Amino acid sequence: MPDKTVGVAILGCGTVGGGVVNILRDNHDMLLGRTGIDFQLRHVVVKDRSEYPPNAAELPMSTDANAAIDDPASEVVLELIGGTTIAGTLIERALGLGKPVVTANKSLLALRGPELFALARQHDTCIAFEASVGGGIPIIDAVLRGLVANRIDAILGIVNGTCNFILTQMTAKGWTYDQALKEAQKQGFAEANPTLDVSGRDAAQKLAILSGLAFNARVVESDIHVEGIDKVEGADIQFAKEMGYVIKLLAIAERANGDWISLRVHPTLVHKDDVLADVGGPFNAISVFGHALGHALWYGRGAGRTPTASAVVSDLVGVGMGTTALSFRQLRTLPDMTSKANVLPFQELQSRYYIRLAAMDQPGVLAQITAALGRQGISLSSILQHEAVGTEHVPVVITTHVAREGAMQAALKEIDGLPTTASRTVCLRIVDQPKEFGGR
Ligand code: HSE
What pairing do the DSSP bridges indicate for beta strands 393-400 and 127-128? Predict the structure, then answer.
């Protein structure tokens, strides 16, 4: 006998919604056995009948989201539509009725998280959002509760599977960005319009959510410096490899210069011995540095039908058991309870750099380049140049010791203005994780 029954309304039955429906149907008895809760699907809502899934006849399908939310039999609302417009209005409606909401919607939370959390609080209900970051990896729960005893100093990770798949293909097969993107689309990792992923925005939205919880500060997407992977060239992947590095799109949040938080998403050189270098294909990995725990890594499938559904159902169970509501009431780390993050201006970032420039193969050219870096107080760590093969310009790759971003940008302006260099200099950042974690 169940301890109780919980009526569920699912808004959206695409990849994630369909996965949730399957788990609730196929694993109903397992969930009942583990939790004592009989989760009953009351409504599965889609935009129009053309979106009905193949097994629609067995499901309580409809196209009326408002009716599904308003139905007293719907005790929990799962928002799995995505986007920041209709989804936002429907969540507001559910919260306004005091109904708990489970959502995977990172775009909406990165844009309006504080407001929606406050609305939930006002109506004495809650929002659960494990699936919004890292797909099936339980990183939200880890940061909110598992690591509550820690001052988190940094979170850095691979949080976009599409970009990681593309970069992995470019690295392993020597493909161009366009070739790798096409393969990602063919295999169903990248959308027909891949902009949100490849521009780095998807990763930035996830970082906004995660860093806010980790640093107990309010972070929105626009706080984050974002560079995508769409400009990464095969040449940089090859040079990086030659120097012992792998290029990954990292989302990084770290304490800096006292009370500041540095927030950024960009293609990053990580050493080949760093554990993040081995995270291949569509996988995600999130590395957390806590003062008590030390370093830890969460690895797994960050997207897809069943991984994301796994996180949604975990949230549903938390809501059903009442633990989510308790945490929501008690925790002071949710975005509506914290103050705005003290975001380090990007120009103040301290980082190591990789630059690749096209220099004329003439006497004194390298001296001009190194002088420009030297004038900005930037110390070189290595220089790589191959013999020119019949071209006027030759690629020169330089890595630096830690320097200030503003200084590097000033040096690059000077270098790009030299008559002896051609095209814009490529500038990527290098991140060295501590030895304990990276294994170097
Ligand atoms: N498109 C994302 C990714 C998953 O490729 O990781 C959803 O955020």
Answer: unpaired
Query: How many of the other CB atoms lie within 10 Å of CB of 349?
Result: 23
Q: How far apart are CA 440 and CA 436, in angstroms?
A: 8
Beta bridge partners of 37: 4
Of residues 130, 87, 205, 85, the one with CA closest to residue 77: 87
Q: What is the CATH number of domain 139-301?
A: 3.30.360.10
Q: What is Dmax (Cα atoms) for the chain?
A: 85
Domain boundaries, the chain: 4-128+307-330, 139-301, 347-437
Active site (annotated) includes residue 206: yes
Read off the pLDDT of residues 49-72 as tens digits, 9 standing for 90 and up.
Answer: 999 999 999 999 999 999 999 999
Q: What is the pLDDT of residues 390-419, one digit of tens each?
A: 778 899 999 999 999 999 999 999 999 999
Q: Whole-model pTM?
A: 0.95
Select from 159, 162, 299 the residue to mutate for testing ligand 1; criterion: most ligand atoms less than 8 Å from CB. 162
Ligand 1 midpoint to CA 238 (Å)? 26
Catalytic residue among 4, 106, 186, 206: 206
CB 128 within 8 A of CB 109: no
Q: Which two tokens stand for residue 305?
A: 């039908």
Task: Say if residues 73 and 7 touch (Cβ distance below 8 Å).
Answer: yes
Q: Of 68, 56, 51, which Cα lies nearest the Cα of 9?
A: 68
> To test the ligand 1 pocket, which listed residue (140, 163, 202) has its Cβ within 8 A of the most ligand atoms?
202
Backbone angles phi, psi at 255, to 5 degrees: -70, 140
Residues in the ligand 1 pocket, defined by CB under 6 Å: 160-162, 197, 202, 302-303
Q: Which CATH number fits domain 4-128+307-330: 3.30.465.10, 3.40.640.10, 3.40.50.720, 3.30.930.10?
A: 3.40.50.720
Other Cβ atoms closer than 10 A to 376: 17
Q: What is the DSSP letter of 145?
A: I
Say whether domain 347-437 belongs to CATH 3.10.150.10: no
